Amino acid sequence: MDESKLRIIKVKESILEDNDADADKLRSELKDQKTFYINVMSSPGSGKTSSMLQLIARLRDEFRIGVLEADIDGDCDTRTMLEAGVASVQIHTGGMCHLDADMSRQSLREIGSADLDLVILENVGNLVCPAEFDTGAVKDLVILSVPEGDDKPLKYPLMFEKADVVLVNKIDAMEVFDFDMSRFTEYVRMRNAKADIFPVSAETGEGFDAAAEWVRSAAREWLGK
Questions:
Q1: What is the mean pLDDT of residues 98-106?
Q2: Are 125 and 43 in contact (CB under 8 A)?
Q3: Is pTM, for the whole model, over 0.85?
Q4: What's the domain count of the chain?
């Protein structure tokens, strides 16, 4: 075979570069629109929805809030949000395990983000695909639950490299599981020196005042308040 005729097309790299450019464009649009968009990522069962409800309860008097719920199928999380009186739109990804910038743009248009100060995306539940695709969010929030173990930053480095803030949920179950918070923090710091880390319990509400203050400060800065 003539090696000079061999052509290699790096499709994934090209797709990611195109998406990154679109994500930057979306952030610029949201800045002009004065909408703070935060991307929440975690494994299934870590407590994304319950954690979001804890944050929203502490922020809803100050910000007009909407939620985008992304799943391969199903609408139970959207129903939970709507029952809590939170504007919410369900996104079905058609088998894809992540959202990208264009999916975000379509979903933000659907929920009417121009009339919202804060939009929270509950991304598809896994620690791999969502980390690879920039959604156009202003900040990335990662939730890890105590039962998952403190070694996850070693196993899923990109997720923790991308995180602006990490919530360690289910600390009320700490005594039942072999989870070392200082060891987890050390592993995160190996990947990310800047991410803020908050131990929380969506069951009891512990730690969420501080976590909500982090979101409040980031949103105010973005919105110019």
A1: 90
A2: yes
A3: yes
A4: 1
